[in-house]
Give the backbone structure.
Amino acid sequence: MKAAVLHKLGEAPKFEDFPDPIPQGDQDVLVHITAASIKNIDKGLAAGSHYDHYYTELPCIVGIDGAGILDDGTHVLAGTRPPYGMMAEKAIAAKAYLMPIPEGVDDVTAAALPNPAISAWMALTWRGQLKAGQTVFIMGATGVTGKLAIQLAKHFGAGRVVAAGRNSDVLQTLPELGADAVISLAQSDEALKEAFAAEARQHPFDIVLDFLWGHPSEVLLDALTGHSLVAEAHTTRYIEIGEMAGSKIALSAATLRSAGIELYGQGGGSVPSEMMARIPEVLGELLGLAAAGKIRIDTEAIPLRDIEQAWQRDDLHGKRIVIIP
């Protein structure tokens, strides 16, 4: 079969032949892949920078999850294990972890949705403990997960959603998704700090979802710092999720002393087992929202044969690339 084959960590996978997968027992089922999205975690695993013991034997096929069709014609979401990945014509999946795709959701959308939507869902409900009427600030809102976070925040009853991002074209579309205010990151530090501070003065942030980290986060945290012995305290649950703008920041001690900021992270290793056990339930609800037209994700379908070029693209503009065998 044809597949996206990884030969060396840190390199792009290549369109090549790979042996067909063979079910190993009654609990395995053959899935004919219809769509598999390229996600940051897929790239991180293939680079060896995330969970560096995942790909222990090379060559292997990339892609941790995707959509496909069973022999009986059922459309499902599924995941597989190395050396087989989902960016191929076929894969083996455990029957216990198959998720039927509801009517009204095409396979490309279904393949693109789980990773970013679950991330946004958990950040808002589990980490953020969002309550109706609260204000949510989203750093990196022009990305795929940020755009879903806007929609889900409104779905959960957020009173105000403030969206910050760099892509001006995408930024202009965010009010359509539910953003009440948008802030461009493409301005000087001083202007950006004042924009953050002005918004926070009018509507203090209850939750911050940060998909960027790096320098933009330093400016935001400085804007939220009290800088006064009589600064009014307001609890802000600041949740670090991604690092698209940098993996490290300089954090002033004064920020933690003079503002009610509670700093959290969300990712593999930080989520308790009881929350992980809820993921199938959450995914089912997310697919239901997509089927009802209450959330949407922008995608770009690309043939499997073009995997090497697609893997290296960075001109995504808030879209998720989905590989089609």
